[in-house]
Amino acid sequence: MSDDGSPGEFGPLSLHVPEPAVRPGGAPDFSNVELDEAGAIRRPDVDANPEDIRDLAFSIIRVLNRDGEAVGPWAGLLTDDQLIEGLRHMMTLRAFDARMQIAQRQGKTSFYMQHLGEEAVSCAFRKALAPGDMNFPTYRQAGLLIADDYPMVEMMCQIYSNERDPLKGRQLPIMYSSKEHGFFSISGNLATQYIQAVGWAMASAIKHDTKIAAGWIGDGSTAESDFHASLVFASTYKAPIVLNIVNNQWAISTFQGIARGGSGTFAARGLGFGIPALRVDGNDYLAVFAVAKWAIERARRNLGPTLIEYVTYRAGAHSTSDDPSAYRPKTESDAWPLGDPVIRLKNHLIGRNVWSDDRHKQTEAEILDTVVAAQKEAESFGTLHAGGKPSARDMFEGVYEEMPPHLRRQRQQAGV
Amino acid sequence: MPRKTMIEAIRDAMDIMMERDENVVVFGEDVGFFGGVFRCTQGLQAKYGKTRCFDAPISEAGIVGAAIGMAAYGLKPCIEIQFADYVYPAYDQIVSEAARLRYRSNGDFTCPIVVRMPVGGGIFGGQTHSQSPEALFTHVSGLKVVVPSNPHDAKGLLISAIEDPDPVIFLEPKRLYNGPFDGHYDRPVTPWSKHDLGEVPDGHYTVPLGKAIKRREGSKLTILAYGTMVYVAEAAAEEHGIDAEIIDLRTLLPLDLEAIIESVSKTGRCVVVHEATLTSGFGAELAALVQEHCFYKLEAPVARVTGWDTPYPHAQEWDYFPGPLRLGRALVETLEG
């Protein structure tokens, strides 16, 4: 062995494979989630020099404190009525999810993905946008539709792939599309639409429009090259976009550390691109709204992109095809330090004397009635294996604006 | 009529469309200030400004992905991938996104983009500047795939592609940029200025997508070709004195099946030729269609003459390239078969 750094001097190499703090059977451990006190993080001007706010990529902006009070510089943006509306949206999304989850178990559709624990992120973000803005969502942002009053019946018809399915049975359940509601067609592939959102935003700037775009991605999918392409393009062309990362801790069975590597946070990914990056408590409706509004204003004022990491927790399974008990402790979600977004907003409103347990229960019952009525109506148009369904003819339509001869021949062969 | 190179014709098409439609934007690697490594976009940034024609980061997925978002907004991006060999990082964007957006959103969102890229060998480009990946795109529902063989068609087809409401993959045989090439690599090059198909009308005109054209009348055998192989086919037929009919397909998807059936039904023999590798190549599709539709008119098996199933080599370029000798042998065999 020599002393000049030759092979062998430092012993054999070993590969580092990150592991979550705990596995099934163990006690949940979130000691790695460093929390800032609500109200502790400053609110810079939207035109702040990105260099001066790099620290915001490593803290967590929170508004609601332990006692349910809204505190600090990010508080005070929403009226009580707006907050009650926000609570109703989250409760509606939760009730919708619960019914559709059951419908899937009853065989009325093939697949479903719920939002449990993450309702605040998409519901609050939608309220910070203006009409005409465009989201490029992933599969866990249906709050963007619910909070924009998109008809639940249409969502359910899509989930059931029935005769009223606005997408004619062509897409997997929950891969909605609504240009009118600023909700880009969900692909189902991961990360691909992040860069499309940047392109949409660039187009808005090219046309001297006033609309902005919002890209959505999960913690796991930030590992895709499309994520990095998005950050390069957004940064290079100062695209009017909000780049959202929903860090719900789990990518199916893979904990967020596998995608994050040595970087302290996902928000910090933006720093190398010179993009202002903020981390926010994703289970705090008020904080999500405040940070979204800040970033949206930056985009609107042509100051360029903002990256936001929403720190949240996927309390449910990834999808109806997933069983989280195989890879994480069953009680892990109870130990999640940022709590439940619905309960936190409820407690805040009760503390402000504009809400009560009774009113909450009553609202829950009303919402359930509305969801059940919508479900009944949707099911009258069929479910995946029963009742009305899209025609086989629809399968051949819409591949191109005009059907080319080879598809016409194939449709004839199929006898439809 | 003015004669132009294929590069000038392609530039002319973009120029005309940018002039007519302010939603047409052009971008790609080295495309803006410099005008593209093959100079296809030269002058466009100076003329239309740098928000209509600009340089992109070296990120093919980013270029195509951004174009999809722009198209969904309402622009008509005509983007350049520097070489077809570099398109693979963007393949997911093309296959999973651009091609399916109209279908999966039931027309709520559409994707009128044109993805231009140089294809084919014959320039000693080795495996990273020579590939012909057309079959990777013709296999994808929702795309249109175009391969022009001359300046006149290149301009008319590119204008059609930009005006098309759906995504179009526009493959430009780079060996044809400056003149026709018949595979005789050891002979002097003919420039487009000395070829009739270098005649490019001024102003706006279209060559429709989905329409083939007969490049040579013949009665004994049909050669199905596109791009560079059109000239290889002409040379092979001339040199072997074969009364061959040559169909230049021009658009591979949608395909002009009628033109193929009409010709093969008349000649009873068919040779398919392309530069891309053999296995699962577009020639397999052509051969299958010919036997499906012309089986009882065929007097010989359909032959395929293609690049070998190897990566595109550097030093052995002319052993790989399906030139007039190899094609000529196949023509003779098919005539005797």
UniProtKB/TrEMBL annotation, chain A:
<keyword id="KW-0786">Thiamine pyrophosphate</keyword>
<dbReference type="InterPro" id="IPR022593">
    <property type="entry name" value="Oxoisoval_DH_suAlpha_N_dom"/>
</dbReference>
<feature type="region of interest" description="Disordered">
    <location>
        <begin position="1"/>
        <end position="30"/>
    </location>
</feature>
<comment type="function">
    <text>The branched-chain alpha-keto dehydrogenase complex catalyzes the overall conversion of alpha-keto acids to acyl-CoA and CO(2). It contains multiple copies of three enzymatic components: branched-chain alpha-keto acid decarboxylase (E1), lipoamide acyltransferase (E2) and lipoamide dehydrogenase (E3).</text>
</comment>
<dbReference type="GO" id="GO:0003863">
    <property type="term" value="F:branched-chain 2-oxo acid dehydrogenase activity"/>
</dbReference>
<dbReference type="Pfam" id="PF12573">
    <property type="entry name" value="OxoDH_E1alpha_N"/>
</dbReference>
<dbReference type="InterPro" id="IPR050771">
    <property type="entry name" value="Alpha-ketoacid_DH_E1_comp"/>
</dbReference>
<feature type="domain" description="2-oxoisovalerate dehydrogenase E1 alpha subunit N-terminal">
    <location>
        <begin position="12"/>
        <end position="51"/>
    </location>
</feature>
<dbReference type="InterPro" id="IPR029061">
    <property type="entry name" value="THDP-binding"/>
</dbReference>
<feature type="domain" description="Dehydrogenase E1 component">
    <location>
        <begin position="89"/>
        <end position="385"/>
    </location>
</feature>
<dbReference type="Pfam" id="PF00676">
    <property type="entry name" value="E1_dh"/>
</dbReference>
<comment type="similarity">
    <text>Belongs to the BCKDHA family.</text>
</comment>
<protein>
    <recommendedName>
        <fullName>2-oxoisovalerate dehydrogenase subunit alpha</fullName>
        <ecNumber>1.2.4.4</ecNumber>
    </recommendedName>
</protein>
<dbReference type="GO" id="GO:0009083">
    <property type="term" value="P:branched-chain amino acid catabolic process"/>
</dbReference>
<keyword id="KW-0560">Oxidoreductase</keyword>
<dbReference type="InterPro" id="IPR001017">
    <property type="entry name" value="DH_E1"/>
</dbReference>
Automatic annotation (TrEMBL), chain B:
<feature type="domain" description="Transketolase-like pyrimidine-binding">
    <location>
        <begin position="4"/>
        <end position="179"/>
    </location>
</feature>
<dbReference type="Pfam" id="PF02780">
    <property type="entry name" value="Transketolase_C"/>
</dbReference>
<dbReference type="InterPro" id="IPR005475">
    <property type="entry name" value="Transketolase-like_Pyr-bd"/>
</dbReference>
<dbReference type="InterPro" id="IPR029061">
    <property type="entry name" value="THDP-binding"/>
</dbReference>
<dbReference type="GO" id="GO:0003863">
    <property type="term" value="F:branched-chain 2-oxo acid dehydrogenase activity"/>
</dbReference>
<dbReference type="GO" id="GO:0009083">
    <property type="term" value="P:branched-chain amino acid catabolic process"/>
</dbReference>
<dbReference type="InterPro" id="IPR033248">
    <property type="entry name" value="Transketolase_C"/>
</dbReference>
<dbReference type="Pfam" id="PF02779">
    <property type="entry name" value="Transket_pyr"/>
</dbReference>
<dbReference type="InterPro" id="IPR009014">
    <property type="entry name" value="Transketo_C/PFOR_II"/>
</dbReference>
<dbReference type="GO" id="GO:0007584">
    <property type="term" value="P:response to nutrient"/>
</dbReference>
<protein>
    <recommendedName>
        <fullName>3-methyl-2-oxobutanoate dehydrogenase (2-methylpropanoyl-transferring)</fullName>
        <ecNumber>1.2.4.4</ecNumber>
    </recommendedName>
</protein>
<keyword id="KW-0560">Oxidoreductase</keyword>
